[in-house]
Amino acid sequence: MSISLADYAKAKAFTLWVKSIIGKEPEIINVNEQYLEIDFKPDEIEAFKSYLDRQVGGLLVPKPTDQTPPTVQIRFGKILVPWSIQYLLPAIAGVFGLGYLTGNLINKK
């Protein structure tokens, strides 16, 4: 099994994305012509962990109110709310149904 040019392109695109985040590009390793492996050096690992920590920390810290809105805004609410409702409503109904059945079983003793 050989590695296609598309696989190299995907690996290169990923490494360039990582470079845009941490400023360093991880190495692409061809392992026995079977698969590609993206290898991070220790300093790249620490930089990427630091980036992830900043992303998570940014979710937990309130944003300043005087900040101007970003120039690109994605309205995921129009997608995520209807999509989540189709799973949440049956789950909520199932929880209440199980609670009702459990209550009936306990009270019939």
Distance between the termini: 65 Å
SSE pattern, N- to C-terminal: HEEHH
The percent range for helix content is: 55-70%
The total of helices stands at 3
Oligomer: single chain
Count of discrete structural domains: 2
Radius of gyration: 24 Å
Please state the average pLDDT score.
Answer: 88
- The coarse silhouette is extended
Beta fraction of the residues?
5-15%
Instruction: Give the biggest beta sheet.
Output: 2 strands, antiparallel
Sequence of strands across the biggest β-sheet = 1-2
Which class best fits the helix and strand makeup? Answer: mainly alpha
Describe the structure.
Helices cover 62% and strands 9% of the residues. The chain has 109 residues and is mainly alpha-helical. The protein folds into two domains: 1-67, no CATH class; 71-109. It has a two-stranded antiparallel sheet with strand order 1-2. Strand 1 and strand 2 (35-39) form a beta hairpin. The radius of gyration is 24 Å and the shape is extended.
